[in-house]
Specification:
The structure is a single chain. The chain is mainly alpha-helical and 310 residues long. The chain folds into four domains: 2-104, no CATH class; 109-203, Non-ribosomal Peptide Synthetase Peptidyl Carrier Protein, Chain A; 213-256, no CATH class; 260-308, no CATH class. Helices cover 54% and strands 5% of the residues. It contains twelve helices and five strands. The chain has helices at 2-15, 36-50, 56-64, 70-85, 93-104, 109-119, 127-138, 145-155, 158-165, 174-203, 260-268, 289-308, and strands at 213-216, 219-221, 227-228, 245-247, 253-256. Strands 1-2-3 form a three-stranded antiparallel β-sheet, with no helix packed on it. The relative contact order is 0.05.
């Protein structure tokens, strides 16, 4: 019997090699209770996509070929013996799925679903993640429209729940609640991302920052009215006018803003300044030659007087 089953499966697989649609095969089922639903759903999808033209016995044989290991292996052997002796009839693959669920599934599945439904919450998940998890738990709980809506609202984040409840036309069905909650949550998250991006652009040089009040000398009034330099470093003291302190790109003081060439000319030539000692142009009193000349002449006379008086 097992050899015949394997031959049928191999023949079916050869016939499917020409199909272009890729469909995932179910994982091997070893009898674990928590994997019952996943195995049945995966097998059902594959049969609908690849094996709709196959007879029921071939579909049943294909599903049983994935029942391997652990207690499931012994269960399959007993099932094959019962089928061979005529003690059991499995006419469709759905009957096989029901038997797998009854023999390996939870006996109190509905109670477990209800308990999960009463404790599930959105928390830090996106609303779409919460909706998908809620749908999975709600399936098999026997909850219907109104109780289902109340449980969904209870687990929904408060801000989204309040906005939907205060809308001009609040949602009235579980489908509307889920669809509009996902849309609102997505819009809010997108808005926060855009605000962060705009904030980063405004902080960069040349970004769309608000105009700052300038005081000259590289000083500006930033946020909160604080005087800042080029890089936004707070500055204290100093002159805010055009002739005040200057600051480099790091916000550090670099001294008075003056032309070094002009300083050299003033020291050597005096520019167009007038000496208040001799009245001539081109030098200052501290550099006046006439003044220095008088000092040189006075010093020998004073020395002579001192020597004569001795």
């Amino acid at each position: 019997m097992i050899a015949t089953l394997q031959q049928q499966v191999n023949t079916m697989l050869l016939q499917q090699q020409g199909s272009r649609v890729e469909v995932a095969r179910p994982q091997v089922f070893n009898g674990r209770m928590e994997e019952v639903s996943a195995f049945i759903n995966a097998a059902r999808i594959y049969i609908r996509m690849k094996m709709t033209e196959e007879v029921a016995t071939t579909q049943v044989a294909w599903v049983l070929s994935y029942v391997q290991g652990g207690i499931a292996e012994a269960w399959k052997d007993n099932l094959m013996d019962e089928l061979a002796k005529g003690e059991l009839e499995v006419e469709t693959v759905e009957q096989l799925f029901s038997k797998i669920r009854n023999d390996f599934g939870e006996t109190l599945e509905e109670e477990r679903k209800i308990e999960q439904l009463r404790t599930i919450e959105q928390g830090g998940k996106t609303c779409n993640e919460y909706v998908q998890e809620f749908k999975k738990v709600a399936r098999g709980s026997e909850y219907e429209e109104r109780p289902l809506i109340e449980e969904f609202k209870r687990g929904l984040n408060g801000m989204i729940r309040r906005k939907l409840a205060k809308a001009e036309e609040p949602p009235t069905t579980i489908g509307e609640w889920q669809e509009r909650a996902v849309r609102l949550d997505r819009n809010q998250r997108q808005s926060r991302v855009e605000e962060r991006m705009l904030g980063r652009n405004a902080a960069r040089p040349g970004g769309n920052a608000q105009p700052r009040e300038s005081f000259g000398g590289g000083l500006y009034r930033g946020r909160g009215g604080q005087i800042t330099g080029w890089a936004g470093v707070p500055q204290t003291g100093g002159n805010r006018g055009g002739g005040g302190n200057t600051f480099n790109r790091g916000g550090y003081q670099t001294g008075p803003r003056r032309d070094p060439n002009a300083m050299d000319v003033d020291r050597g030539r005096g520019g167009d300044r007038t000496c208040y000692h001799c009245g001539k142009f081109g030098h200052m009193a501290q550099n006046c030659w006439e003044r220095n000349k008088a000092r040189v002449v006075e010093r020998p006379q004073e020395s002579a007087k001192e020597n004569g008086g001795q």
